[in-house]
Amino acid sequence: MAFDYYLALWQLTPDGDLMATRSSRLLPVRCRDGTAAMLKIAIEEEERQGAALMAWWEGAGAARVLEREGDALLLERALGRSSLAAKARSERDDEATRIISAVAARLHAPRPQPVPSLVPLSLWFRDLEPAAARHGGVLLRASTTARELLAAPQEITVLHGDLHHGNILDFGPRGWLAIDPKGLLGERGFDFANIFCNPDPAVATAPGRLKRQVEIVAEAAGLERSRLLKWILAYAGLSAAWMLGEGKRPDIALAVAQSVTTELG
Fold this sequence. Notes:
Elements (H helix, E strand, L loop, with lengths): L1 H8 L3 E2 L4 E2 L3 E7 L5 E7 L2 H13 L7 E5 L2 E5 L7 H6 L3 H16 L10 E2 H4 L3 H8 L2 H14 L4 E4 L8 E3 L5 E3 L5 E4 L13 H4 L4 H13 L3 H21 L5 H14 L1
Parallel strand pairs: 7-11
Antiparallel strand pairs: 1-3, 2-3, 3-4, 4-6, 5-6, 8-11, 9-10
Helix pairs in contact: 4-9, 6-7, 7-10, 7-11, 10-11
């Protein structure tokens, strides 16, 4: 078992149950000095790219990488009890959005070291146009909008690629830090779009929520409001395309996309 090798290599002790996601396997552990950590083994390429980006950030805005070898990543573990999703569900949505925006600013800050291999946004959006042609509706508007944005990008930077309430955790004294990046390269505004499809259907589709949070992100991140709305539409369309491709109902993404089209006019 791969975990046994890394437990021995880095002198780790299991400290919880094994967890599985679509793209990785995770095991809570304790380091030799008692530090709480998470041992993560990638099983898909996007996780390997994300691991390289985590290391590149060097703990600034993201969980600190303690060890890395092959498909394995040893990360500091979040032990704080606060949750951005819980904040958003308990009438503290504005606070959660501002925290995400602040973390994004740290992640987007330039670094002196060479940038790791990243996926361009133009490639990341490859599934949207075929889905729009197949399903029509608001996906056609999302596809056209994405094409326009990608043709003339602004403020190109390293992107997390999946910033939302569940991927920014409470690390106690170290504050709020990101995990699980996709490792993308493109316009800065894209990284804020997923906020609006999260943390759950009730919050994401609440009346007035889109308009309110757009104003907060635009101010906190220094983004132009209409361009941010366009990125939200493009992302919601892409998310819907992925879900349709997997045979799932894209209700939240389509609802957000429709709300954005109404806001844009």
